[in-house]
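Dear H.,

Thanks for agreeing to be a second pair of eyes. The structure we're designing against is below in token form, covering all 471 positions.
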């Protein structure tokens, strides 16, 4: 019987053990499959478990290890896939009633790269319908439950990925982020979620939401693991017009260099909403930790902040409606209620709205690029509150009920401009649920923000090592 404690190890630890042949990929895979079998009926994180394919991949990884062929740090390590990533021969539902029986013939480019890196793909993870919401309360495949509190949502749309990683069902998973859908679930589930620079990871073979805002990236339990998983996913794809031909560095090479001398900035203008007192305290304390590690901290303005909400709404809703217009017109009943409402709102976006938003996007990008030439990174909240209740989609800010989706603005500004941001847990709210900050860097600055995140993690083991109580 495989050692269940293997499930609590990181990607970096598991990869090293498999490489050294201290444990086999088969043992690691069986341990995770057993945990999925035990906990997934409660959490509903996976919609498809690829058990036999995973076992076959693990045997192949072990055979290659014995032969001296090591593919890299993901070799033999189980990874979950959000169920909008195409997988050849395996059902990809896109969280939709229309794709219940959809079996792609080709892998998404990032999936192909993960296979090439030796990862063991263990299953497909639940998502908000068409990745178009912030709770993962899916009307067709059921809600995913947050492992920290089973009556709470894990965020969305990569909620299955967030819950699975937080519950130790897999050490890493893929997510997508159009309006915060990696960072939101990372915050709700107390893990690390990295939205890379736009164009860093190919989105070919991933069901689109709003193409000019869509990003794919890693969700893990540590910053180092996020760097390892991103390293396997990233790279130029000439068949993807959004992909950028830029070098892919080793994101973990300098991750332990610390933050001494780095200039970090708070920017309250980009909070947009009132923060719950617990979130504000946790953000203040995280800032003090970073200063204590040698970083310099200042507060900066962002004069164009008032332009963000209308810009993100025109881009995201306009592009989403353009993708779904024909199907929605013909079969509106095939969509869940919240996505129908989103599409109806998207139908109100005019061409003038969209063109104006494209122009404003460039002004926002230039302003943030200029700011990030002066400071090394911005420190922002991910959400104004704890994870929402599944039943209502609502949480509380200083005693007032708010919808979790209302926090999109503080995340989606970074989709509009395409800059990298990593969500990192920074403490716990009054209900014992995780709280998070995002560290925002310049374009192609993923290594820098992971370095900052890693330094914070090392300094706060009491946060990083706390496990969900509900499981």
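And this is the sequence the design step returned. I haven't edited it by hand at all.
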């Amino acid at each position: 019987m495989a050692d269940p404690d293997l499930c609590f190890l990181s990607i970096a630890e598991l990869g090293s053990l498999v490489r050294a042949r201290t444990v086999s990929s088969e043992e690691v895979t069986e341990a995770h499959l057993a945990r999925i079998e035990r906990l997934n009926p409660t959490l509903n994180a996976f919609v498809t478990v690829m058990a036999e394919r995973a076992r076959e991949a693990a045997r192949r990884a072990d055979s290659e290890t014995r032969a001296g062929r090591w593919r890299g740090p993901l070799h033999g390590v189980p990874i979950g896939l959000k169920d909008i990533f195409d997988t050849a021969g395996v059902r990809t539902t896109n969280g939709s009633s229309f794709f219940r029986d959809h079996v792609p013939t080709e892998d998404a480019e990032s999936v192909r790269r993960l296979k090439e890196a030796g990862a063991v793909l263990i299953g497909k993870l639940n998502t908000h319908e068409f990745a178009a919401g912030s709770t993962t309360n899916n009307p067709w495949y059921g809600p995913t439950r947050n492992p920290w509190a089973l009556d709470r949502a894990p965020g969305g749309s990569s909620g299955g990925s967030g819950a699975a990683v937080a519950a130790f069902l897999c050490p890493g998973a893929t997510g997508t982020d159009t309006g915060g859908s990696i960072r939101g679930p990372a915050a709700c589930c107390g893990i690390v979620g990295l939205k890379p620079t736009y164009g860093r990871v190919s989105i070919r073979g991933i069901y689109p939401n709003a193409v000019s805002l869509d990003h794919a990236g890693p969700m893990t339990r540590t910053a180092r693991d996020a760097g390892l998983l991103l390293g396997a996913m990233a790279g130029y794809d000439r068949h993807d017009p959004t992909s950028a031909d830029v070098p892919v560095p080793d994101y973990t090479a300098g991750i332990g260099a610390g933050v001494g001398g780095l200039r970090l900035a708070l920017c309250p203008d980009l909070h947009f909403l009132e923060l719950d007192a617990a979130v504000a305290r946790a953000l203040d304390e995280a800032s003090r930790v970073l200063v204590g590690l040698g970083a310099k901290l200042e507060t900066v303005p962002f004069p164009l902040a008032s332009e963000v909400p209308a810009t993100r709404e025109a881009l995201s809703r306009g592009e989403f409606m353009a993708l779904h217009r024909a199907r929605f017109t013909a079969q509106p009943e095939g969509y869940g209620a919240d996505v129908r409402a989103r599409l109806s709102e998207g139908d109100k976006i005019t061409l003038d709205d969209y063109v104006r938003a494209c122009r404003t996007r460039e002004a926002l990008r230039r302003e943030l690029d200029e700011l990030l030439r002066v400071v090394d990174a911005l420190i922002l909240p991910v959400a104004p509150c704890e994870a929402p209740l599944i039943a209502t989609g609502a949480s509380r800010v200083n005693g007032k009920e708010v919808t979790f989706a209302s926090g999109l603005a503080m995340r989606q500004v970074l989709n509009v401009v395409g800059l990298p941001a990593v969500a990192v847990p920074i403490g716990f709210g009054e209900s014992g649920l995780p709280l998070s900050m995002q560290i925002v860097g310049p374009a192609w600055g993923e290594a820098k923000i992971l370095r900052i995140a890693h330094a914070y993690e090392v300094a706060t083991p009491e946060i990083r090592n706390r496990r969900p109580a509900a499981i």
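Two observations from my side: The longest helix spans residues 351-374. DSSP finds 14 helices and 15 strands in the chain.

Warmly,
E.
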